[in-house]
Amino acid sequence: QVQLVESGGGLVQPGGSLRLSCVASGLTFSRFAMNWYRRAPGKESELVAGILKPDSDANYANSVKGRFTMSRDNDKNTVYLHMNGLEPEDTAIYYCNAQHRGTLSIFYWGQGTQVTVSS
Which residues are within 8 A (CB) of 33 and not within 5 positions of it... i.e. 6 or more apart? Predict the structure, then answer.
């Protein structure tokens, strides 16, 4: 059974930082691209960051470039999203996604973790 378990969300003041974690189990981690998405109230889902292969660099949405850093620990089957300079516009539920690189119909989602940026 595949599981993606996110953690690290919470309430933070503008300008603050958070680190999200996503631990994957039940899949061959190296075969999956790993992504972070977010969904804010009343808005469509946004791909925030992704790492295509175990040794790839991360790609970022323009809205978070320079503030967020995604990393991947292949030994721990874990991805992280380090978020600095948080803004109220970053408030959303953040979801971890695993996308099989060879078969697009194989993908998994975590349960999501709430990030709220407010003073």
Answer: 50, 51, 52, 53, 98, 99, 100, 101
Mean pLDDT of 84-99: 98
Closest C-alpha to 49, from 39, 38, 61 = 61
Place of tokens 């078969």: 103
pLDDT of residue 113: 97
One DSSP character per residue, 80-118 reads EEEE-S--GGG-EEEEEEEEESS-TT-EEE---EEEEE-
Cα–Cα distances in angstroms (integers) from residue 30 to residues 49, 68, 70, 113, 115, in the given order = 17, 23, 16, 24, 28
3-state secondary structure of 31: helix
Scanning the structure block, which residue is given the tokens 């933070």? 12
Residue appearing with tokens 């009343």: 42
Q: Rounded mean pLDDT of 95-102? A: 96
